[in-house]
Structure formats: C-alpha cells, structure tokens
UniProtKB/TrEMBL annotation:
Protein name: Glycosyl transferase group 1
Protein's UniProt keywords contain Transferase: yes
Residues of the Glycosyl transferase family domain: 198-349
UniProt-recorded Gene Ontology molecular function terms: glycosyltransferase activity
Alphabetized InterPro entries for the sequence: Glyco_trans_1, Glycosyltransferase_grp1
C-alpha cells in the first residue's frame, strides 16, 4: 500500500512480445509512481528494463504458441494455471490483468482470493487472433475460435471489479458503455513531454512524410509503399523502423530509394525517436482495427507532428479530425496519396501542430496519467467497500 492509502497492484500480462513489453513498461512506470507494483508475466525479453526496475514473477519462458492452434490452446490453459499459482500469497490488494483479458480462470481465482480485480485490454485481441488465424485456417473455424476468445473476454469484463480502457472511443469499440459504473474509460498511456517536445517548429520542416513503427503486414506497409511511390517528387516518404517487411520494402522501392524520394532508416533507438518525429511534416498511420492507441501517435503530437490515422479504437479521441490531426477514411493507396497532398496544402498546419502539443501537455503527460490511475484505484476500492 502507498503512503496515501492506495492499494498495491499486481499486474498480470500474457506472454510479451516487444510491443507488449513497451506498453507494459509504461503502465508499470505510472503505477510505481503512485503505489507498490509487481509484474506476473512470461516471455519477457532478456534485455527488458523491467527486470531491474520492478518485482517480477516469470511464469515460463515459453509463450502461448503462434503456429499451431492446438499448442497455443494448451499453453493458454497452462499459463492460466501458472497465473493462479503465482497469485497465491501475493500481498497486493489489486490485481490488474493487462492485455490478458481472456484469461478467465485467474481472473475468477483472484476474486476468490478476495482481491479487487481490474482488466485493461490493449486492443481488440479476438479480432487480432481471427485475422491471424484466417491466414492458416478455414475462415469459419477462425471466426469460431475468435468467438470463443471474445466470449471469454466478455466474461472477464463481467467478473472484474472494473474495466479500464485507454479512451472512451476504445471502450465503445469493445462493446462497453463508457458511462457505465465500473468502466474507467480514461486510462490512456502517457508521453514524457520533456523528451518528446517540439525541437523544430512545424513551419521550418522539410516536405518529409513518414511512418514510424514495425514494418509488418498489420501496419499497412504494402499500402504505404504504393503511396510512397506515387507521391510527387517534391515529397520524401520516410519509413522509420524495422520488421519482417523491410527486405521486401527495400527491394520494392529500390529505384525510389536510389533517387532519394524514399528513405528506409531501419531500427532507431528510442532516444532518437523525438528527432525523427521532429523531421516529419506529417505522420501517416493506416492502423488496423485491432489497435488500441498507438504510443507513436501520442509521441508525434507531443513533438508537434500532425497525424493522419485510421479512426479506430482510441485513436479518434486523440487524433481529432481537423483539430489535432486527420482521419483516414479509406486505405486505398490512391485515396491515401490524395489525402496526404490535400493535408500538406493546408495553411493551418502550424495551428494543428500547436493544438496537438497542447492536448498532450494537458491530458497525456506523465503527471496526468498518474492522477488518472490514482482516481481509478481509489474508485475500485470505494466501489468494493460500498458493495460490502
């Protein structure tokens, strides 16, 4: 328990890949600033900073499995049993299932232990799994399996003392009423506004448009490659990041790269991300509907970089069309290219840049995030007390 009476929190996650590790690290940083915190997880990267900064309980070094559904299901069940075992004897009064919203057995077990239980989805997991499974399974089977995961997730929502989402729009996309009691729709991430700041005023930036993130299928990289090829020669399209599609991208756009119209930077250290964002006149993110709220969007707005993104999940609460950024209505390459050109011809981009920075300072700073989670922890404790 913290000095001001807030309960300690045990965060439970599913096996972590790099993107999940980054999001979990941010959540732990917030919680550690307001109370005591520990983490129960699996597959944590060996070089993760979490190992040195927080109490860690590792379930296993093997994840849920990706290639074989039967193996994935078996590991999914086994990890739930391991989570239950890890929760026995924990001192924290609150257990927060972060991303692991379909892990119904440990959610119910935590309730039986007398813990206050929060669940916080990172995105639309059932949809993510369905799209993944459809690549190797019949569509009917993929939809059926995803439907089972959806039912488990909904049961987890119902069993918990509260559900935390990044923004109200994300809550609505997940079928939750943001106004309903025990739904906490403002648990969004944060940005270190001292590190992510406007170093180059928007009016002084070159005609560089870009993408920052993983170069993978779900990020719309093939679509962006078509966009990059078709932009007028006065624009440069920069791909910042690395991933499975980088070799394909470099082959596909070899001529444009040689001409200097396209740049592929490869992986960049996180400390270099603010500089990269300050180089861009516009960040383009044709996000899948599986996204929750990409941290890159918050970081870009903090750097005064307007964002052109698909209005999915929590995105429209941050990328406000015509105010702090722009919504992608159609991910067709020609439509995207026309949208980029139209945006860059606007005469109010400096004002949009300034409003994006103000939004982050007011609502998504570290201090604001800490205050949100203080409120959530107080509310879940008070709600349990009222029901008792």
């Amino acid at each position: 328990m913290s000095e001001d009476g807030l309960p300690g929190v045990c965060v439970v996650t599913h096996p972590l890949a790099s993107a999940g590790e980054n999001a979990t690290r941010s959540l732990l940083e917030i919680l550690a600033a307001v109370t005591t915190v520990s983490l129960v997880t699996a597959d944590l990267p060996a070089d993760s900073e979490i190992r040195d900064r927080h109490e860690l309980i590792e379930l296993t070094e093997r994840g849920a499995g990706q290639s074989n559904v039967a193996v994935a299901a078996a590991r999914f069940l086994l990890n739930q049993l391991r989570m239950c075992r890890a929760l026995v004897g924990r001192d924290e009064a609150v257990v927060l299932f972060y991303g692991a919203t379909a892990y119904l057995a440990p959610i119910l077990f935590a309730r039986l232990l007398g813990k206050r239980v929060l669940v916080e989805p990172r995105g639309d997991v059932p949809l993510t799994l369905r799209l993944h499974w459809e690549q190797s399974l019949p569509a009917v089977l993929a939809r059926t399996l995803a439907g089972l995961v959806r039912a488990l997730e909904r049961s987890g929502f119902a069993a918990a003392d509260g559900v935390v989402t990044y923004t109200p729009a994300m809550a609505a996309q997940l079928g939750l009423d943001p106004q309903r009691q025990r739904v906490y729709p403002n648990g969004a991430r944060f940005v270190h506004t001292d590190r992510f700041d406007v170093e180059t005023p928007h009016a002084e930036r070159e005609r560089v448009v870009g993408f920052l993130g993983r170069l993978d299928e779900e990020k719309g990289i093939r679509t962006l490659a078509s966009v990059a090829r078709s932009l007028p020669p006065e624009y440069t399209f920069r791909f910042v990041g690395d991933g499975g599609l980088r070799p394909w991208l470099e082959r596909e756009l070899a001529e444009e790269i040689a001409d200097g119209r396209v740049e592929v930077t490869g992986w960049v250290d996180h400390d270099d991300v603010p500089r990269q964002l300050n180089d861009l006149e516009l960040l383009v993110l044709p996000s899948d509907p599986t996204e929750g709220l990409p941290t890159t969007i918050l970081e870009a707005l903090a750097c005064g970089t307007p964002v052109y993104a698909t209005p999915v999940s929590g995105v429209p609460d941050v990328v406000r069309d015509g105010e702090t950024g722009f919504h992608i209505a159609d991910r067709d390459p020609a439509t995207l290219r026309d949208g980029i050109e139209s945006i860059l011809r606007r005469d109010d981009l400096d004002e949009i840049s300034a409003r994006g920075r103000t939004l982050i300072e007011d609502e998504y700073s570290f201090a604001a995030a800490c205050e949100r989670y203080r409120g959530i922890l107080r509310a879940v404790v008070d709600d349990r007390a009222d029901r008792a």
